[in-house]
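Q: Predict the bound structure with beta-D-fructofuranose.
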Amino acid sequence: MPAVVIANTGDVPEFEGRITFNVIVCVVIAACGGLMFGYDIGVSGGVTAMDDFLKKFFYEVWERKQLAHENNYCKYDNKKLQLFTSSLYIAALIASFIASKTCSKYGRKPTMQLASIFFIIGVALTTFAVNIEMLIIGRLHLGLGVGFANQAVPLFLSELAPAKIRGALNISFQLFITIGILIANVVNYAAGKIHPYGFRISLGIAGVPALMLCLGSLAIHETPTSLIERKKVEEGRAVLKKIRGVDNVDREYDSIVHACEVASQITQPYHKLMKRESRPPLVIAIVMQVFQQFTGINAIMFYAPVLFQTVGFGSDAALLSSVITGLVNVLSTFVSVVLVDRVGRRALLLEACVQMFITQCIIGGILMKDLKITGNLPNGDALVVVIMVCVFVAGFAWSWGPLGWLIPSETFPLETRTAGFSFAVSSNMLCTFVIAQAFLSMLCHMRSGIFFFFAAWIVVMGLFALFLLPETKGVPVDEMVDRVWKQHWFWKRFFNDEQAVEKREAEMIRPHLI
Ligand SMILES: OC[C@H]1O[C@](O)(CO)[C@@H](O)[C@@H]1O
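A: Predicted complex:
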């Protein structure tokens, strides 16, 4: 999943090494992984809003859309249409579990190659789909690709990137996701004008980042960590020399060997993760993902064109409006890159909650007041809705979007970091699936109330951030336990067991001594 880079954002030791060709390869691979995922997030909503696509695969939805008296909120309420979007995420969820095994057993490189192959098959099936079955099977393949890539690419990056750019790469992965979404929005806007096969162009272009990943993964080296972990020690050292561009890599090599030794002693990281002292970072990792998705962001990302049509925009204007929200998403993610280490995580998250709460309430309020069951919103109102969606997306993109990934990547101790992170990834996929599958039905049944539903979640996450989320800005990752968790008014209780036992034992011994 996005930004699964296990970043060491604290005091990272500086090892010998130049910015070599390898660094460029890292960025290209990060870009392919992020673009592949982002493009798929953006493309589904766009094609769903295209009449040619609906006529071909979801005729009843298209027919219903044509009826002027049809209920605005329910035009798109169709289980199969939702399955078209959501099927990808359920496949990705399953694949991410398998991928964590293939990554350790066979390496990061073959896992990425596998991802690109699944992805290319998925692109071919969706682009040339002749019926809905072929379309959904194609989406499932894309999901497998996304699941494998989202596990392997960030791991590859965190192991290969020089330490000093590791943190930046963490957010850049999310940045590439947003760029992927934007590209999909632009392609949809252009392809929507090409009849009758414009939607096939939209679906087919997803193959570009997949092909790049496929070719890119032929050119790369397996990571030294993965080689050493699989006992190919000499090859690991040779690759390290090559990618760092210097001969003296002893210190980094020793540190990788040491890390692999430590990791091999933890035979059951998942077991360790269930221990009491792992609870604070685990709860934070899962809850950050649930909250990230329950801001309602993907209701917008997947269904923005549909949503804009619901409030009365024509197909073209709706696709153009989503290009605008896509652009806001990219630009605001840059804001996060600049601010996250200056103002801190909590300030960004809390500010965004206020911003997202207000915008969701305004959108809900306008729809409740002015969007009748049939007919359109007055023009002025529709414009306010688009502006509010942009303000909402901006708030999300500089806070819960990237920080949903950054915080779990920096709060686990080394021994449970990867295992803990896989919980974050799968929670994200699961919640994304739920929103993709449920949103259009919720819109139909709850009408404008859906925006108040998300607003209520935003209040809950704001309170959570206020009281339960510790600030991690500037804290070295390996000092989290002492400097963050043990100092926190609530989470410290999870670390007192040992001391409490010692104290109790001392008290029991004392009377005998007297
Ligand atoms: O930029 C928005 C996108 O970012 C994510 O939250 C991933 O971090 C996606 O679920 C969403 O579509």
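A: Confidence is low (pLDDT under 50) at residues 1-12, 509-514.
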